[in-house]
Structure formats: C-alpha cells, structure tokens
C-alpha cells in the first residue's frame, strides 16, 4: 500500500513526508489513517497533526490509490426487516464477513430492500456513485439476475451458495447442500421415526428447494413420505404457529425438522408448553448450528452449515479481488448433522 | 429532491428530460435511480435506458445534490466479532435502524473495531473521504471522547444512551436506565427472594454501571446485599460458566439476573441441565426483551429496553439532520419489566 501511496504527483505532500514529520514509519501513517493496526492514540494524533500541518490528505491519497478503493463491501438483504432481528443467521454471516473485513479496515454496507428490482437498482446506484468495491449476494434464486448484472457493471461479487463452475460470478458455499438434511433424515429413521414433518423456508429460495428435495428423496428411499411439509417465512412466530398446527394433526408427527435454529428452539418451547417432552415424545432438528443450540436444554440437534466460515470465505474471495493479500478461502466440504439431545428414539405407540 | 436535482448547470441533461424521454414522472426517475418506491422492473429499465441515452448520470446528480449526500449512516461497533454473532442485541438495533433507513434508500455502513483509538481514526477517515452522512454511536463510556470528536468533524451523530441535555451530540435512548432493574429486584423481593445474584456486562460500559448501581441500591433499600456480582463479556459461553459457578456457591442464589436475553436463556439451560427446575428451584431474569424469550419454555421474564425503537429513533434523528422529512422520534419513557414464566416464588428452604 505504501508504494502505491507514494506514487502520486510529486507536487503534493507525500506520506513519506508525513511519516518523517511524525517520527513514525509510513506503515504507521497508513494505520493511523485507516484505523487498522495497534498504534497508540498518542501516535495517531501525532500523525494526524503532521498530516494536517503538511496539507496531506488521506482522502486524496485514497482516491489516487485506485479509482474505486472504497474499502466497502455491500451486503444487500432482500428480506423484511423483522427477519433480520429474529433470525441469527444474518448475525452469523456478518460475523464471518467482519472477521476478515475488520482487520483490513474494510466496512460492510448493509442495505435492506423489498424485492429484486430494488436490489438491482441499488447495485447500479452504488456502482455509479463509486461507493463499493464488491458485493456479497445472498438468497440465491433459481433464476437469479444478479450475477449477470454485476458482471455487466464490472463489480467484483460472490454469490453465496453451492459452488457452480458455470456461474458468471464466484459462488462461495458448501457443496452438496442437501447432504445435511439427508443425514438428519437417516438419523431419525435409525431412531425408528416414520412420521416426520418438514418445515421449510420460503419456496422461492434455491436452498429451500434443494433441501426439501433432499428431505423427500431420503424419505422416499425408505419407502416413506412426509407427514406434512409447510413453508414458512423463517420467523419465530411462524415456528410457533406451524408447530401447533403439526402437533394437532390426527397423524401427529414424532419428529419435526426446521429450517433454522431459532425456529427449532421455538418449536421445542411450543411442544413443551403443550405438555410434550423433547426428545421423549417429540424429536426436533434445527439448521445452522448457532451457538445458542449448544446451551439450551435439551441441546439442539442441528445441521452445521458453517455460516461464519462461508462468510469468511466470501470476504476473502472479494478481498483477493480487491488486491488484498489474504489467505485462500477454506471451506470444509458439505453440511453435516450435529447430533445432540433434542432427538431420541421414537416413542412407543400409545 | 426533484427541485434540487433540477437546479444543476443548464448545460447538462436534466432529470426532467430523462423523465420525459421515459414517459414517467421525475419522482419515478428518482425512485428508479435510488431503488426506492414501488416501480416495476420494466419501468426501471426504461428510465435507465433513457438516462443512458441522454448521458444523464445519477452519480453526478447525487453529487450535485449536496456535498456529502451519501445516503449512508455509520455504525461502528467496538466489540469482538464473535459477540456480534451471539448477542442478538445488535441484530435488534440494526433492525430498528434499517426499518427507518431502508424505505428512504439509506444504507448502514458497519465497521468493527478493536478499541476507541481505532474507532476515532475510522470516523476521521470516513469523514475525510466523504463516505457517510452521519453516525450512530453505541456503547457509551463514562469518559467518551466521541461526541466532541464528531462535533469537531462536523458529522451529524447520535449517541445511544439515556437523554442528557448537556451532551455535545443528541443522546437517544430511554430515560431512567436503572428503572427496569429496580422493577426486576422489586418483583423478586415480592416473590420472597433474598439471595439474588447479578451477572453484569463489561465494567467499562456506562449502562453496566448504571444498572449495577440500580441493582445494589434496590437490594440495599430492602436491607439486603447481592449474593454475588460477576462481570461478563456478554457471550453465551460466559453465561454457562458463570451460572455453573453461582449455582455451586455454598449460599446458592435463588434468583439470577442477566445482562441480556441470550445469556439468560443459556443460564436457564445450564440450570435445567444440573437438575434444577425454572422457576420452581431458580428464578431467572433477562434483559432486552428479544422475541426469542416469548417462545422458549419457560417464557422469559425480562426487561424491555425497546432496542428496535431506540434504533428507529436514532435513525430518525439522523435522517432529520440529513434533511429528510421524517416523523419525530418516539420513545416511551423508561425500561420496563415484562413478567413471564421464568420467575416464581422463592423455593421453600430444604
């Protein structure tokens, strides 16, 4: 970075001059300006004073550095605002992204939009105004217009989802998206369950389709079909409603599979409130492997899809595209079932 | 907005010309460019094509509109990345902010920093580079350098916390920060509890001090003192460790008060795993009133500090400062106890 900063027009004050005046290295100047590294407040002030005295502006340097060096990555979420609050999935994703972005002084520009048209218009505006260096695309759809749009705009992007060599932008995620659900069904079948119900996410999402297909196939291979399949909007309120409905079915399921952990925890609470014991009377499986599931009672059996690691890998892919020196992204294969205490042998028929 | 957009140098194409060419209103052009409103994808494309044909650039207009009209608000979080993932408090805050920002086409620029020096340097850089229109300051400290810094930088800011007329920047939050904890203690005393332990947040945070003082005063007024006070880093792991430690005390507490809901839920799980019933053997109080607490079993007694509403009020205060036409922020007084099922009468001595 220092070399590039020094390569400006000679008429203007240089970072070297600022470093010399402040009695620090150019790296320290860079850190003071970028808010990275571990320099003291006193050093930072000395650098800023020297910069101010010499008329050296970090802004001008940053602009000179590269046309679009904003150190900002966009994360546009096409969801109602209340899901952001209730579904910890996004906090986990943001945590994974920030773990890579923060140490390099990058920020995450979060926008919530109502639909795909708004999302597309937003990328065009952010690119036109030079506000971002890249974008993380979430909630891949079967017919997703964004990869082509962003390639057209020349903006580095990654799409979260199963790797696909034919995609116009890199896809970052675990392979075999259905593998965790297949494992979950296998686990329930081994425990003797035959009446399993599936709570899915919104029907238009690609991962909803992949996971539901895996669920139905795995049951079909055992000569079974789901007791019930219900789509949901991922909210806790929906978890309560759907659990109450499923537990009132004449052919009551002995196991419920949820599309995220917060819904699974709410499903357990709803079952317990109706007098059922988990897992004695009802087995429950979540999805995401959030830390909460490790501590509730009973501990949650869930599918680990490594949300934080996927976020970190997406960030590294984008950072590499921005010319940053980052280790290659590491992702460990496929979603895996984590068996804890919320699943158990099928209750004997009463 | 249209009037301002039209007030550019006459030599350049106008938004009016773009609107006429696309056969839409100037408001629709503005919506197409900003990704706001409810226009169809077809209309949006028509507008973008007309803009492109006439050589009208939304970027230039946006710049002309006002020097620093970035439609971006900064949220800098001075916490380890893993707390962001495990504490839903930030998701709730972001949800509240986005509920006001998103409909107006504003984004939230999220940065994680390690300490106050990094946070200060970051504001200086973001202002110097013209990247933000305002900032939301969280985790107020007793001796907080940020209000003076941001006033000096000329950046609109709000500091989350109890209102304080003497503050250099507006403070947005509920008054009487200790009121919820006082109510919680009163509730536990009424239920007959005398051995109450308090799990606090990090000691350097202002709200940690205010709440702890309220807790100790409320007990003192009843002639009691806490069985134990422990500081924590807000994580679920800490909740498990501190709960195990407190339940092993010779003078075991009959009630635990936690600094957030996710810690309280983990505390309940830890107590249940050790064979204790909640609330029969142990009462537990949370803080935040997250939606999760409504659905777990037993439902969580907690203090509602209206995190989403505080976020919304902070966003409105900043948006008004950016010249947006927003309703005045509304906040309902003070934190209040929400009594549910995780608190009950003190167990009879064994």
From TrEMBL, chains A, B:
Which residues span the membrane? none
Q: Which domain of life is it from?
A: Bacteria
Q: Which UniProt keywords apply?
A: DNA-binding, Transcription, Transcription regulation
Q: What positions does the domain HTH lacI-type occupy?
A: 13-67
The record, for Pfam families, names: LacI (PF00356), Peripla_BP_3 (PF13377)
* SMART domains for this protein: HTH_LACI (SM00354)
* InterPro entries hit by this protein: HTH_LacI, LacI/GalR-like_sensor, Lambda_DNA-bd_dom_sf, Peripla_BP_I
SUPFAM superfamilies for the chain? lambda repressor-like DNA-binding domains, Periplasmic binding protein-like I
Q: What is this protein called?
A: LacI family transcriptional regulator
Species of the source:
[Kitasatospora] papulosa
